[in-house]
Amino acid sequence: MVWRSFATKLALLIAILITVPAVLYGQFRSADIERTALLQRSVQEEGRLIAATLTPILANFGDGAAAKIGVQLAEIGGPDINVKLLFRPAEVQGAEGFFYIAANPQVTAEYIERDRSELMATGIFRALPDTCAGGEPLARRYTNPAGAEEVLTSITPINLPGGCWIVVTSNATESFLGSSIGQPYWKTAEAQLALAMYLLLVVLVVSLFGDIWRNVRRFGAVARAIRVRRADNPSFRERNHIPELDWVAEEFDRLVRVLNESADSIRQAAEENAHALKAPLAVISQSIEPLKHAIPAENERAQRAVLLIEHSVARLDATVSATRRMEQATAELIDPPREAIDVSALLLGMLKSYRDTMEGHRLHLEATIDDGLHVRGSEELFETIIDNLLENATSFAPEGSKIAVALRADKNNAVLSVTDQGPGVPETDLERIFERYFSRRDEDARTGTNFGIGLWIVRRNAEAVGGTVRASNESSGGLQVEITLPITSGESSE
Phi/psi of residue 23, each to 5°? Predict the structure, then answer.
C-alpha cells in the first residue's frame, strides 16, 4: 500500500515541515502587527504629549527661549527617548526650510547639521503639508550621524503664527530595535532565531530519514550480492552505518549463514537419499530380467505381474530422480553458485547432443546464438534450465515441426528463448505452468513419466541467479518460454 511506503512518509513529513512554519509565521506575524500598532499608537501619543508640553514655550519664543527649550527637553526626554525639535518660518515652504533648534540628548553643532541632512534624506518632512497640519507614526529605521541605529517613532507638528514647529521622537532602546518596527517581521531577532532552530530541526530529521534510506539501500545491495553470489559478498554488518541497526545486520548475517548451511544439508541429503533408493531399485530391476525369462509364456497372469513390477520400478526410479532434482533446485535457490559461465558455449554444446534426439522424433532444430554471453551461475544450473526447456518443447512439438532456440543480448541481459509449434497453453494457464506439479501432458512412450516439475525448476533456477521467466503463445501456434538473465563479465568470480 502507498501509505506504508517509506518514500511516501518522507514526502509527507517534508510537506508538514514546509506547511507548519508557513502557518505559524502567518499567525506570529499577525500578532506582531497588532503589537506594533499598539506600540506605535503609544509612542505617537508620547510625541503628542511632548509637543503639548512645549507649545506654551514655543508660542512665546524669544530671547532666552532656546535655553528653556533645552532644559524642557532634558526633563521630557529621559534616557529611553530622543527628541529633536525643528522649525520652519511661516514665509518658507517645503521640507528644505526646516532648521534644527534643539535636541535631547544634547549634540554638537556639527552633529546637528549632519543629523538634519540625514533626516531630510529619509523624506519624513514630506509627510507634512505646507499647512503644518497633522502627524503620523513613523516607524522607520534610522542610522544617526554617530553610527548608532534608532527607530524614528513619531513626527508631531505644532502650527504657530511664527511658523511650523515639529517634534521628532526616536528610540534607541533594545526593546524597540529588537521589534519589527520599521522592518519586515522575518528580519526580527526572534523570527531569525526561530528560523535557525527550525532549519536545524529539518536538517536533523531529513538527515535521519536519509541515513535510514541509504542504509536500507545498502542492505538491499548486500541482499542482491548474496542472491547472485558475487565473489566480494559483503556482510550486512560491514555495510551498516547506523549503530542502532547493528543487531538487525547481525541477525541478517546469521540468517544467511543458516540458509547456506541448510542448502549444503539439502544437497547432501538429496545425493544420499537418491543413492540409498536407487541402489535397491537397480537390484530389483536387474532381478526382473531372469524372472521374465523363467516364467512360461502361457502363464499370462505371472507375465502381467512381472510387467507391473517392472513398470512400478520405473515409475519409482523416475520419482526418486524428480525428488533429487527438486531438492537440488531448492538448494540452489537458497545458495546459488557464483561462477561466470559462458552460456553461449554451453548452449551450443548441449544442442549438438540434442540434434540426434530431435531427429529421432522427426523434429527440426533451429538455433540462433550470440557469442560470448556470460551469466553468473554454474554449469549444472544452466544445464538443468536448458534440459527442461528442450524436454518440454520436444514433448509437445508434433512430428515434422520446428523447435527454435535463441540466445541474444538485450542491454545488460542475456535472453534465452525456446519456441515450439505445439498446441500452446490456454491463457489462463500461462502462469500456472511454472507451478510445481502442474502438467498438461499425458504419459506416453515419448514423454515417459512426468511429474510437472520441469518448468517449475526452470523458474526456480533462473530466479536463483537473478533472472526472470515468462511464457507466451505464438500467434502462429506453439509456446515460447523466455528466460532473462543478467550478464556478467567473462572472468570467473570464484
Answer: -65, -45
The amino acid occupying position 425 is: V
Per cent of the chain over pLDDT 90 is 7
**Nearest Cα residue to 165 out of 232, 72, 27, 245:** 72
Residue 328 to residues 77, 398, 462, Cα–Cα distance (Å): 98, 31, 13
Cis peptide before 105 (omega within 30 of 0): yes
Q: Which helix (H) or strand (E) holds 100?
A: strand 99-104
CATH number among 3.30.830.10, 3.20.20.70, 3.30.450.20, 3.60.21.10, domain 2-187: 3.30.450.20
pLDDT at residue 46 above 80? no
Burial of 35-67, coded b for 16+ CB within 10 Å and e otherwise, reads ebeebbeebbebbeebbeebeeebeebeeebee
Cell (9 digits) for 231: 565473489
Measured CA to CA in angstroms, residue 420 lies from 209, 294, 402, 471 at distances of 52, 46, 6, 12
Domain locations along the chain: 2-187, 196-335, 337-486
Burial class (CB in 10 A: 0-12, 13-18, 19+), 273: middle
Fold of 337-486: Heat Shock Protein 90 (3.30.565)
More confident: 125 or 232: 125
Whether the pLDDT of residue 350 is over 90: the answer is no
Largest CA distance in the chain: 162
CA 125 to chain centre: 59
Q: Whole-model pTM? A: 0.44
Give the C-alpha separation, 494 to 327, whole Å.
Answer: 24
